[in-house]
Design goal:
The chain is mostly helical and about 425 residues long. The protein starts with a helix and ends in an 8-residue tail after the last helix.
């Protein structure tokens, strides 16, 4: 668990650096620029959902084949997942380039934000292929147990972004942040591709692996579509919350919440790394017919994740001011950011346990059950609660945010119960 989790945590740390670096430098351009980045990233979570869904399927299938001592079949499954990603990225990129300004308006942006920020949105959505491949190929490496390779690719991508972001923002303004991000992600994909085709790891891709295989494609889609829907449900609910905050609090509230959310994502990385380690351990142990070891690894992971995140929760509750102060000195934005960070941070223990349990189910190939859990907790519970609380006199954006930890507590409870029942042990992929 530790050997897998540490490089995964470092990998995700560098992934989150994209958002943090962009927000750090863009925040100097004012509230409109902050709102543009935040609203665009909220839409890009849909692309993340497609990428993570495919990545989940690839991780589960590659891990199962590796557990069965069959790296050739694992490589073939990974290559087929790349073909699916290519087709999806073309559709998303074309739509993003054409409708960038309309997307921002739909998200609740003011006319000024939509006008000035459209170029940022257009560039990022146009670079969707780099986003999808970076997530997907790292999922393939994680399934093979090579978490260190996934980590290194994110290091390269993030360091490139860190270097280019301030330089390009200085010369190109907000557009420079988008260009730097796309170039950074693309550099990571180039490094990944080199090691997939020329490397000496357990997986090595060849041209024969890319010939269209309807049987493998169907198997991957069977696992991927619920996983994609699972993350679309989560990201879609977040988009609704972001819009609700923008409507009830205005541009300053939207900017403050976006800064808080990026800080939250950064500090959630240990739990993400541990949950991804649990998914790999479940997949490989099921492939090797060691179901008891798979189960034990998940409970251990959940325990340590909850302990670790309890310390982060205290950090967010008592030191939210200094954290938000790193990104902005605007008093109006800081008020909303500090408030959001405290509210969202109060549920860290629930986030960690829920993530480990749902990722363990995903690693077993049971992607449908977490999808149902997400739908019930986010759309049937969280969104109505957020809408109700936001409309209460004096609550506004605070009410919308209060629904987030409540929903994740529900996810943690349902995820633990379903995993305890053990139906995931019988899933065949």
């Amino acid at each position: 668990m530790i050997l897998l989790a540490i490089p995964m945590i470092l990998e995700l740390s560098l992934e989150s650096v994209f958002a943090v670096v962009d927000m750090f430098f863009v925040s100097r351009l004012g509230p409109n620029a902050i709102a543009t980045v935040g609203l665009t990233e909220s839409v890009i979570t849909i692309i993340y959902s497609l990428a993570i869904g495919l990545s989940t399927a690839a991780t589960a299938m590659v891990a199962r084949r590796i557990g069965e001592k069959n790296p050739e079949t694992a490589a073939h499954a990974g290559a087929q997942s790349l073909l699916i990603a290519l087709a999806a990225a073309v559709i998303v990129s074309v739509a993003g380039v054409i409708f960038a300004d309309k997307i921002l308006t739909l998200m609740g942006a003011s006319a000024e934000v939509a006008r000035d920020g459209a170029v940022f949105t257009r560039i990022l959505l146009g670079g969707s292929l780099a986003i999808m491949l970076l997530f997907l190929i790292n999922g393939i490496f994680r399934g093979a147990g090579d978490a260190a390779m996934a980590m290194r690719s994110l290091w390269i991508a993030s360091l490139t972004n860190i270097i280019l972001c301030p330089i390009l923002i200085h010369f190109l303004g907000l557009k420079g942040a988008a260009v730097a991000t796309v170039i950074g992600r693309s550099s990571g994909v180039i490094y990944q591709s080199y090691h997939l085709f020329k490397g000496s790891g357990i997986l090595k891709f060849h041209l024969r692996h890319f010939f269209w295989d309807p049987t493998i494609i169907r198997s991957l889609i069977k696992i991927a579509w619920p996983a994609t829907l699972q993350f679309l449900i989560g990201s879609g609910s977040w988009i609704v919350l972001v819009r609700l905050v923008a409507e009830t609090g205005g541009t300053n509230a939207s900017a403050g919440v976006q800064i808080a959310f990026r800080s939250f994502i950064f500090f959630m990385l240990p739990a993400w790394g541990l949950s991804n380690a649990a998914a790999t351990l479940v997949g490989q142990n099921l492939g090797a017919k060691h179901t008891e070891r798979a189960e034990k690894s998940v409970y251990l992971t959940a325990r340590y994740s909850a302990i670790l995140m309890s310390f982060v929760m205290l950090l967010f509750i008592f030191f939210s001011g200094p954290i938000i102060g790193v990104f902005t000195k605007d008093p109006a934005v800081m008020v909303y950011g500090v408030q959001a960070l405290r509210i969202i941070g109060s549920g860290f223990i629930f986030y960690s346990v829920g993530m480990v349990m749902t990722q363990a189910l995903n690693g077993a190939g049971d992607t449908r059950t977490p999808t149902v859990i997400n739908f019930v907790c986010f759309w049937i519970f969280q969104i109505p609660l957020a809408y109700y609380l936001s409309k209460k006199p004096g609550w506004g954006s605070t009410g919308a945010l209060a629904a987030i930890p409540a929903a994740h507590a529900f996810i943690a409870l349902l995820g633990w119960y379903v995993f305890y029942k053990g139906s995931w042990k019988k899933v065949q992929i």
